[in-house]
Amino acid sequence: MRNPLAVLTITAFKMYLRNRQVIFFNLFFPVMIVVIFGLINGNGNVSVSMGVVDNAHNPVSQIVLTQLRQIKAVKLTTGSLDSERAALEKGDRDVVVVLPASLGQGPVALPAFYNAGKPQESSAALAIMTRFVDEASFQYAHIQPSFTLNAQPVNSRNLSYIDFLVPGVIAMSIMQTGLFSVAFSFVAYKQQGILRRLMATPMRVPDFLMSRIVTYLVMAVVQMAILIVLGLLLYHLHFIGNIAYLIIVGFIGAAIFMAVGFTISGFARDEGAVAAIANLISFPMMFLSGVFFSLSNEPGWLQPITKVLPLTFLANALRSISLDGASLWAVRGELLGLAVWLAIALVLAIRLFKWEVA
């Protein structure tokens, strides 16, 4: 006699694969996002990320920093030498220049560390720095200084926008699968009376639910695999993570959004209501949880809210594992946040899910 769970799982897979709309939004839509954003980013204008360590703190260094901030092509940050060097080694800076305390008092050599993996951006940044230090010193001290840049190469891990994007899109696709696939399918089952008829059969309810859960979890792994392979083949994605850790975190995220999907299907009366509620939940998170852009680009008052969203925890954990090779212990903060959301989602699903249309 065949195992009921196995039979129901195979049936669930067949039903999933026959739904063209679900296949498009859960598989092809995330792929389209990665391809389109990758092409857009690949054709963008060259800009430089410059870090400055101001040890002078005098009018000359202030003129230099003020003028650099006015250049749109320069993304300027200031900080300590240790923090800026660390950012350079991670690939977040093209060059780091130290303004010594003797700046503006005569000839001086400026320590400069440049990203060896980005020669174009590094050369541009060094040229800009040389120009503005010379001009500022002459403007303030009325001397023609002889500045030199003591440039030293640093081997950096140069991550591209696509490296940031792919883990975020994986998190987004997991969210969409849980929300839309579960909610739409179960509301349709209830409207058509399928769930009521199934309850009258010898089928065990846990087997039926588990078959759907297994289907969605497997599809989550398929989504991750497709997007990672796409990133590796088309955009040379920097992936150094542990696949097993990635799958574990993906399963937790999928469980959260499946539970939310069950919750939505519990009180939504038709597929139109499902679409409205699911979009109301997913769209704000899609654009505020660091899927496409860093949370640092958001207003300061908004960041405390977006940092505790479930998709933010999921995207951050997947990104740390994929790009930094982080262990599960290293992302324990994100896992704790996911665990809290999983508990909340399960409570809501248990209390609100119904087998028939209310």
Give a written overview of the molecule.
- The structure is a single chain.
- With 358 residues, the chain is an alpha/beta fold.
- It folds into 2 domains: 4-40 and 160-352, no CATH class; 48-154, abc type-2 transporter like domain (abc type-2 transporter like fold).
- It is built from 13 helices and 5 strands.
- The chain has helices spanning 4-18, 20-42, 59-69, 81-90, 119-141, 161-191, 194-199, 205-235, 243-267, 271-288, 303-306, 310-324, 332-352, and strands spanning 48-54, 74-78, 95-99, 108-115, 147-154.
- The chain has a 5-stranded mixed beta sheet with strand order 2-1-3-4-5, with helices on both faces.
- α8 (205-235) crosses α9 (243-267).
- The longest helix is centred in the middle third of the chain and has 31 residues, at 161-191.
- It is elongated and about 90 Å long.
Distance between the termini: 37 Å
- Calculate the mean pLDDT score and round it: 76
How are helices and strands ordered from N to C? HHEHEHEEHEHHHHHHHH
Determine the structural class based on helices, strands and strand pairing: alpha/beta
Low-pLDDT ranges:
none
- Widest beta sheet: strand line-up: 2-1-3-4-5
How many individual helices?
13
Please tell me how large the radius of gyration is.
26 Å
Oligomer: single chain
Main sheet overview = 5 strands, mixed
The total strand number stands at 5
Key features of this structure:
358 residues; alpha/beta; abc type-2 transporter like fold; 2 domains; 5-stranded mixed sheet; 13 helices; elongated
Summarize the model shown.
With 358 residues, this protein is α/β, with parallel strands linked by helices. Helices cover 65% and strands 9% of the residues.
